[in-house]
User: Fold these one by one.
Assistant:
Number 1:
Amino acid sequence: MNYGKLWKIIIFTLLISLSSTVLLLADEVEDILKYSFDSGIRANLEGIKESKIYTSTQIYTFVTREVYQEPDFMYIEYINPPRVRGRILIDDGKRRIEYIPTTGKIRVTPSFFSSQIKEKREKNLKVLLKNFEISQLYEEQILGRPVYTISLSPKGISTPLLKIWIDKKTYFTLRKEKYNLNGEPISLFYYKKIQFNKYFPRKRFYQELPSLPQNPETHPFRTYYSLEEIKRKINFPLSLPEYFPHSYVFQEAELMGDRKTVKLIYTNGIDIVVLFQRPRIDVAMRYHRELMFRGMKMRFREGIYGNTLVWSSSGKTFVLIGELPLDEMLKIARSMK
């Protein structure tokens, strides 16, 4: 037997196998991400999703039933934990209706599939592609469906901040894991069950809601401003941070309902950090701890959707919210000018 020829055949077979399971061009991987981040829907499906949020002391778990129908319909019903059970969200491409059973209230906001929100997602994707190295890890299956497995790491850092499992046929995200720079989990979600090509008449989902009021409380689109525009709309000097971590860039500013509070939004393409400021007031805050930093009294709270740091300086009150550790938040506070 010609063993040399046999080994050549084996190696050639392995190379073909590997090339079919791993290697995609960078542009192809970016296109996959773009399709998956697109707010449109390319499938009719029903699934049970489990989401977990990690803090230093606790893991919060949520279970939802979700229905998506192309091109722009979404229904989400909370199953667990008991405190949110029965909460319902319906988005029909024109408006988003949210029902909160504990209060019996219905809130109506602009659709997640609106052109304005799609434009914001596209801007975020551009920032993400600039700040992160994107790599395809390997092929696998989730719930019997072939998926692309994609990892995003900050440029110059090997630790991934995000891993995404994307269905090959529909570009629907079936699993997502998010980490901090120490490799510790921040959040994840995955579908425990999912069935594609499932269609429901949309009207049946509205039967889960109480009767809609004649004039439900409607929240219009917010108006976003550049830094120069927001400076002209307030009557106090705007303070800006000279430091932000992990390639965050300024995204937009809002003027809040009282017309005295400015909301500055920063993003690195994956996360956002929000900085509120206004003329000095007392901010009510529960379950926090107090600390002193450079002669300033501050309050810090770790929460399910990020950390919060509150302080007052130079006649203004600041509230910083985001998925950042305390030391990074203190650096931002120290850099305010």
Number 2:
Amino acid sequence: METLIPILAAAVRSGTPILYATLGEIVTEKAGIMNIGLEGIMLMGALTGFSATLSTGRPWLGLSAAFAVGACLGLIHAFLSVTLGSNQVVCGLAMTMFGGGASALMGRNQVGMTIKGMAPLDIPVLSELPILGRVFFSQDIMVYISFILVFFLVFFLRCTRPGMDLRAVGDNPRAADAMGLPVARIRCTYAILGAGLVALGGAYMSVVYNKFWAESMTAGRGWIAVAMVIFAVWNPMRAALGAYLFGGVDAFQLRLQAAGTSVPTPLLMMLPYILTILVLVFISIGKGRKISLSAPSALGVPFYREERD
């Protein structure tokens, strides 16, 4: 068991950027807005977080700057999708291409540089628990914030009036509008907040996890987060499970490479993505109706107040 504990702890760290991105997309989609531009937003968040931390020496400023940049990108996506009623899939693809190109261009002079980043922070008493203490409570503070965020979103979506308003806007915007809810404003707000969380996932990779910047360093994790939303059926708790499952496979393949296995490196690097595909196929077989019922009914559908059924 002792040999598994470092792998499990690494799984939590490796899955944290995907968890932030998945939670951000869940919030966005609960409002009825589909944003598949997560890869580009994560890359911009990673570059912004690293650049700000490199220039100031303060990781918190880097993470805050990344959230702000992600929120700005979310504002652009909201303006195109909500205000102009543009195709949300096309807008998301444009966001991905923009983020990938802009981050590579603006970050070309910072490749190879390193920062101090954040150190792990043991939680008193809890970090001394057998197995669980070293896996969950000897991590950095951003991991602890992700734990809190998961439970907060579960409570927010199920037990609070603003959370119910959010779900109403995503499921039936016309009924929500008839109740007096500002549909466009709610959709824009959560699209912005969700994109900010996605950018935090990218910043976690450059500021906390790797502590350096490299072109395309998210390596498809934004697309994995899009798939994780379906795997989680829009449930934050299941999102955490899926993120850590992916992180575990990623950590395992890295350790196999370090051990000098004879398995080709490209094949090992494919393992997390193969697992994601297999999991999606597995949960889709015989459960398509359950997934469709869990998805917000108005997801990806523009809303215009002047239209009447």
Number 3:
Amino acid sequence: MGKSLSKILSDIQAQDAEIPLYINRVGIRGLKKSVTREREDVPTHLSARFEVYVDLPASQKGIHMSRNLEALNAVIDRAVETDTSDTEIMCGLIAQDLLQRQPTATEACVKLVADYFLKKTTPQSNKEISAHYMLKARARSVRKSDGSIDTWKTIGIKATGITVCPCSVELTRDYGEEKLHELGYTSEQINEILEVVPLASHNQRSESYLSITLPFDHPSIEANDLVKILESSMSGEIYDLLKRPDEQYVVIKAHESPRFVEDVIRRILVLFYKKYKTELPPETQIWVSQTNFESIHSYDAYAEQGITLGRLSKEMEENGA
């Protein structure tokens, strides 16, 4: 026979704080959940890791942590029943639910990170493979003074590819020109040779990240389209499986498109602008970063840019990019 439990359950979180200071975010992180994301009537099951936070007023000792879990579970259960297709929408619904369950909170933030896989075909042997990406979704809800709630949603993709150093390509070209001149080739012949023969360079595996933040009621962006933008902006793509014709193609293609981290950032922004300039509101927030894991240096090259679509449009028009 079990022990008799107390019927008095103190609500210590609602007590006055001993040190009355406001805290921006309090909650849970690292919570794993299975989420279903449906695209074109095909369900995709994601193993997602959640972070769920609310703010805490200076007067209150602590948040009711279980309410964060209740909100998350309730929204995920409803999403499964109604086939919610967008992870960022799911995060927004959880954030809004949190503010209902935590009446003293004025802000809620929900983050989701999941491994994301797409089917790809190798460029020459046409072998089907599963390519790995990182999907990130986030939402932030704020309770306004009139009691209404504003929510912004974010979708982000991290992709891995190849970049080839443009500086090293030019150094190799300089070396090749000198050697070919010594062998008696004319300048015209040298230019013809160097136009068709791939030039040596150091290259590196690279990591691109692009995230887009929109008003909650705006139609969502397709994550697969962001993948295409990222992979088109680096020197080349990577594949788990490469037969010899594939390897030859990948290496030559990458060396024909050498790019610095700065080049990749700018190309991502241009491709995004061309695709979405008429579809998204000017207040759309764009965040892009690029990391090149250097092969001949003891450090990595990195660049980032945060900009609104309105500002990007203005820069594009002013600079004729």
